[in-house]
């Protein structure tokens, strides 16, 4: 027996009421693609399920002024196929397109991907590079927290699914001289966790000759998506040249400390991070119509 | 826990069901709606055999709570077309030979349908991505991709799929529709887990907790006392000799382990209960007292003199010698000699359909519907171990979802028969993917030492090899596999002087048995690598050295047999060279 009761509320208000009434014995399920395995293997135990798949208000991708809002129940397929994201926030569309398989992408949601708190969850790595914030609602009210601060430890989120729910993710619409890129390497093209993934957000000056600002996120490196801050600092204010990229590569090699794992060896991951960093910069710059000088 | 109302619309038909809130969608579709075309392959959302359309999108129904689909529209394979009125995809899968065992087929068809519903001009990449969540172990995917292209062309109104595939006039020399093809594409084929009988009980196996241990005591009282448990059985409940084995002279595998376990795959107890869930719960209530023994997990360790013995007779099960000519003389004639050590790993067959069976008495005959690649062998083992005359046992091979040699050995067949024999009820057993991997046979891991010599003109003069095959805790086909390796010690190449020693060795690893090509592939890893090395040292091409030595009409193989007819090696080889553009 997995659980005794199953609720299918249709509004956030109803969701929070069920959680409150159950007093810690109920747990939110979004797509269920991760949670079902955790329950099956006895890692997560819950008496009641509050399935949020019918809460329509949380399934949306909207551009509002200078912000993009992504409802937490937007599926990976919807993210991957969104014309808005493909045009303006490639990093998120591409990250979502790499998750699992079509079957998993059709059920799994961006909120679930983040709350599952896996350090290499593709959309979480992308959201980290986008400096996205999550909006969380609980009985005590609402709060906003950067995605990068949602991790307590490996597999444990700041968001407690027995008490609260992420309603949406919010980030800035990439501007005129801003572009993003996402790189991923896995043992197979489907149904495989990444050996390494890397998300990039980059801003150049108006003639695309210099990096004004940059954010780089990688997984799996730490208990959460890792921001390569030293590498970012090396890149900031530098001209877009092969020399700059080479210096950034030399920095990232020293900065990241991946582990040997079933997915791949640490030294291999470091080499791949070097390659991905260069490829991501080249791709982002070329999307802006610029090029790397020799 | 109370049942709740669940409304589903399946293939256009509304269903008002009452089910427990923790049922999974695949269980409701198969057991409540009664549509068994949707399969369970891994129960982890990975293999795609359970794929259905939920509001038009393919999802894995094995990882989805049924209530997620409450009030929604579902399409299963049965919703595509019927035998009389097949969907273009179903015709095309048959016409292009994209259906083999048929177990992944329903999920493949559903994923392909989802693609074509949105895109009638798919590229090969589109198709491969659309089926990337559906695993197939038989076809290699190419024919499936071709079939989806073929169906798309018909749906675009361009070119109809050839149907029927053959008429009576053109049957000779052309592809024919497979005999069991139509039910495989409509979902009507009955695999073992698709059989349901009134009053059916469910059985589960308790596997060993140790790779090597003595069993001091088994206390089943708590499990027996659990509500819904019909019976709990151990080795002493087996009426017959409690031993099986595919090699008639080496029966070494207990049906239920008695005084000793030799690998994690050993069955220690059998529970029969009113539901699979209760049986599963009862397993955790069985107390087994083990005295762990040191184990051996490599052949190097197993053949040491003081190694722990897996079986009383020692760990060396077979030494097969294949000697011909004079290798010393052969090596003395060689201009170049190459020599190296090689290791290969254990392989799991990973057929998409895990082991399953249903046993029941009908008119005094014990009928066992089960997956099998050896129905008569299984019948014999059931009869002997239940002390029944062979005439009172019938084994019916159900449509079998891939085997590749892994379904020849006895897995759960005697156990499910024992369960029906003891309880008098129809009993079903179905292994999970995890249980399947723990219990089933594997491809033998090999440890090999090879030495090959050749003259300066590339002609091989001698081969000497020592091969050790790890057969795990039980023989299975081990001696046959190692004998085959000795006989094809140098594959398709002619050598006059041969000294091959092949050893089959017991360890506490999972038992290894038959798997595609039965002992030949492991050896090819070694000798093909050395053939390349020889060519390099002799300054000739990798193609040339194989042309010089390849089997032709009149070649003598290691056993001394002269090949007279149907020697297709050179022709095949030249085609491979051409098609792979090896010389480009």
How would the blueprint of this fold be written?
The complex is a heterodimer of chains A (294) and B (584).
Chain A: E1 5-7, H1 12-22, E2 26-29, H2 35-40, E3 48-51, E4 61-64, E5 67-71, H3 76-81, H4 83-88, H5 90-97, H6 102-107, H7 110-115, H8 122-129, E6 133-138, E7 141-146, E8 151-153, E9 156-157, E10 164-172, E11 178-186, E12 194-204, E13 211-219, E14 226-227, H9 229-235, H10 242-255, H11 266-287
Parallel strand pairs in A: 1-3, 2-3
Antiparallel strand pairs in A: 4-5, 5-10, 6-7, 6-10, 8-9, 11-12, 12-13, 13-14
Helix pairs in contact in A: 5-8, 9-10, 10-11
Chain B: E1 4-10, E2 13-19, H1 25-32, E3 51-54, E4 57-60, E5 72-75, H2 88-95, H3 105-118, H4 124-130, H5 142-155, H6 181-186, E6 201-207, E7 213-219, H7 221-225, E8 229-233, E9 260-261, E10 267-273, H8 276-283, E11 287-292, H9 299-302, E12 316-324, H10 327-332, E13 336-343, E14 347-348, E15 356-362, E16 365-370, H11 375-386, E17 393-397, H12 413-423, E18 427-430, H13 433-439, E19 442-443, E20 446-454, E21 460-472, H14 478-487, E22 497-506, H15 520-538, H16 542-549, H17 569-579
Parallel strand pairs in B: 1-5, 6-18, 16-17, 21-22
Antiparallel strand pairs in B: 1-2, 3-4, 3-5, 6-10, 7-9, 7-11, 8-10, 12-22, 13-20, 14-19, 15-16, 15-18, 20-21
Helix pairs in contact in B: 2-5, 11-12, 15-16
């Amino acid at each position: 027996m997995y659980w005794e009761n199953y609720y299918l509320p249709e509004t956030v208000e109803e969701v929070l009421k069920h959680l409150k009434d159950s007093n810690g014995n109920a747990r939110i399920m979004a797509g269920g693609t991760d949670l079902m395995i955790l329950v099956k293997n006895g890692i997560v135990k819950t008496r009641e399920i509050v399935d949020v798949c019918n809460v329509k208000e949380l399934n949306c991708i909207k551009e509002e002024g200078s912000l993009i809002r992504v409802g937490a129940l937007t599926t990976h397929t919807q993210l991957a196929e969104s014309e808005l994201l493909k045009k303006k926030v490639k990093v998120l569309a591409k990250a979502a397109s790499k998750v699992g398989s079509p079957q998993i992408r059709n059920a799994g949601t961006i909120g679930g991907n983040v709350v599952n708190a896996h350090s290499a969850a593709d959309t979480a790595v992308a959201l980290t590079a986008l400096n996205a914030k999550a909006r969380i609602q609980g009985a005590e009210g609402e709060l906003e927290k950067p995605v990068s601060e949602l991790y307590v430890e490996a597999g444990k989120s700041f968001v407690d699914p027995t008490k609260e729910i992420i309603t949406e993710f919010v980030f800035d619409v990439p501007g005129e001289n801003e572009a993003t890129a996402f790189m991923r390497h896995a043992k197979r093209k489907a149904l495989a966790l990444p050996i390494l993934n890397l998300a990039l957000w980059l801003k150049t000056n108006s003639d695309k000759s210099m990096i004004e600002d940059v954010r780089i996120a990688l997984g799996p490196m730490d208990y959460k998506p890792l921001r390569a801050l030293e590498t970012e600092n090396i890149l900031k204010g530098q001209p877009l040249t092969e020399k700059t990229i080479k210096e950034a590569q030399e920095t990232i090699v020293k900065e990241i400390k991946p582990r040997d794992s079933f997915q791949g060896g640490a030294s291999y991951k470091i080499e791949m991070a070097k390659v991905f960093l260069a490829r991501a910069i080249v791709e982002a710059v070329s999307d802006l119509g610029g090029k790397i000088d020799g | 826990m109370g049942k709740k109302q669940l409304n589903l619309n399946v293939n256009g038909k509304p269903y008002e069901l009452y089910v427990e809130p923790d049922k999974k969608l695949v269980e409701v579709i198969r057991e409540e709606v009664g549509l068994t075309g949707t399969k369970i392959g891994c129960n982890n959302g990975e293999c795609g055999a359970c794929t259905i359309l939920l509001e038009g999108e393919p999802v894995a129904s094995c990882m989805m709570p049924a209530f997620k689909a409450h009030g929604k529209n579902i399409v299963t394979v049965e919703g595509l077309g019927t035998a009389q009125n097949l969907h273009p995809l179903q015709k095309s899968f048959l016409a292009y030979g994209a259906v083999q065992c048929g177990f992944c087929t329903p999920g493949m068809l559903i994923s392909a349908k989802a693609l074509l519903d949105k895109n009638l001009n798919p590229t090969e990449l589109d198709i491969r991505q659309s089926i990337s969540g559906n695993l197939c172990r038989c076809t290699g995917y190419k024919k499936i991709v071709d079939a989806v292209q073929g169906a798309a062309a018909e749906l675009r109104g361009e070119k109809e799929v050839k149907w029927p595939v053959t008429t009576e006039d053109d049957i000779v020399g052309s592809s024919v529709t497979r005999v069991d093809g139509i039910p495989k594409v409509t979902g009507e084929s009955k695999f073992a887990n698709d059989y349901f009988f009134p009053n059916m009980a469910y059985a589960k196996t308790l596997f060993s907790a140790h790779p090597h241990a003595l069993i001091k005591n088994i206390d089943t009282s708590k499990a027996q006392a659990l509500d819904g448990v019909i019976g709990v059985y151990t080795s002493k409940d087996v009426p017959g000799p409690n031993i099986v084995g595919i090699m008639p002279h080496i029966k070494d595998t207990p049906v239920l382990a008695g005084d000793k376990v030799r690998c994690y795959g050993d069955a220690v107890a059998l529970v029969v209960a009113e539901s699979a869930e209760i049986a599963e719960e009862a397993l955790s209530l069985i107390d087994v007292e083990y005295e762990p023994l040191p184990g051996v997990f490599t052949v190097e360790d197993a053949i040491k003199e003081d190694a722990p013995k897996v079986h009383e007779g020692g760990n060396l099960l077979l030494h097969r010698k294949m000697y011909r000519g004079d290798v010393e003389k052969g090596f003395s004639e060689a201009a170049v000699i190459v020599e190296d050590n090689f290791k290969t790993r254990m392989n799991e067959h990973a057929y998409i359909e895990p082991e399953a069976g249903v046993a029941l008495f009908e008119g005094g005959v014990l009928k066992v519907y089960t997956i099998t690649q050896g129905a008569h062998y299984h019948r014999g083992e059931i009869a002997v171990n239940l002390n029944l005359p062979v005439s009172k046992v019938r084994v019916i091979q159900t449509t079998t979802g891939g085997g590749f040699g892994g379904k020849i050995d006895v897995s759960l067949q005697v156990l499910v028969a024992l369960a029906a024999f003891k309880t008098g009820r129809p009993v079903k057993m179905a292994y999970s993917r995890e249980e399947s991997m723990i219990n089933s046979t594997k491809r033998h891991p090999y440890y090999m030492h090879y030495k090959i010599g050749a003259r300066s003109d590339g002609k091989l003069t001698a081969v000497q090899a020592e091969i050790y095959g790890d057969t795990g805790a039980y023989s299975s086909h081990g001696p046959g596999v190692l004998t085959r390796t000795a006989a094809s010690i140098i594959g398709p190449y002619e050598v006059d002087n041969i000294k091959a020693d092949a050893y089959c060795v017991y360890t506490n690893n999972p038992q290894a048995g038959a798997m595609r090509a039965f002992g030949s592939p492991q050896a090819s890893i070694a000798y093909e690598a050395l053939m390349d090395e020889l060519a390099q040292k002799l300054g000739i091409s990798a193609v040339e050295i194989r042309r010089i030595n390849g089997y032709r009409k009149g070649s003598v193989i290691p056993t001394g047999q002269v090949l007279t007819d149907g020697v297709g090696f050179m022709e095949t080889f030249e085609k491979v060279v051409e098609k792979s553009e090896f010389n480009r």
